[in-house]
Write a structure and sequence with these properties.
about 0% strand, mainly alpha, elongated
Length: about 130
Amino acid sequence: MTRWDISSSGVEFVTSLVEDAMDDVAKDVKAYGKDVQSAAGSAGTIVGVHCGAVPTGPIEAALTLFVDKTAGDVLFLGALAAKSVNGAREATAYYVVGDLDMAATTQHQALAAPKIDLPGQGGGSGQGKGDGKK
C-alpha cells in the first residue's frame, strides 16, 4: 500500500451500522429457527392410525434436511460480517498510529474466510460465533 486516506470516525460510523444490521439478522435467524420448528411440527404425516410417537412426515423431514444443509452458510455469513467489522476497526487503529504495514496485513487477514464450528463436526461447542480471528 503506498497511500491511504482513511477517516477513523467514518470507519466507526459504518462499522456500527453493520453491527446494527448484524443484530437484526441474528434476531431474524432466531425467529426463522422457531418458525421452521413450528412448521415442521404442524406439517403432519401421511399415515393413518398409529400407536406411540407420531412418525416424521415428508415435510418435516425436508425442512430438517434444509436447515441442516444451510446452517453452515448462515453461520458463515455472521462470522464473516463480524470478522470484517473487527478487521476494519483493527486496520484503522494501526493506520491511525502510522503502522501502514500492519494495517495492510490486518486488512488482508480480515478478508480471509472465517472458520465455522458446526455441532458434531469438529469437537467444538458448535456455537458458530465467529470471533473475527483466524
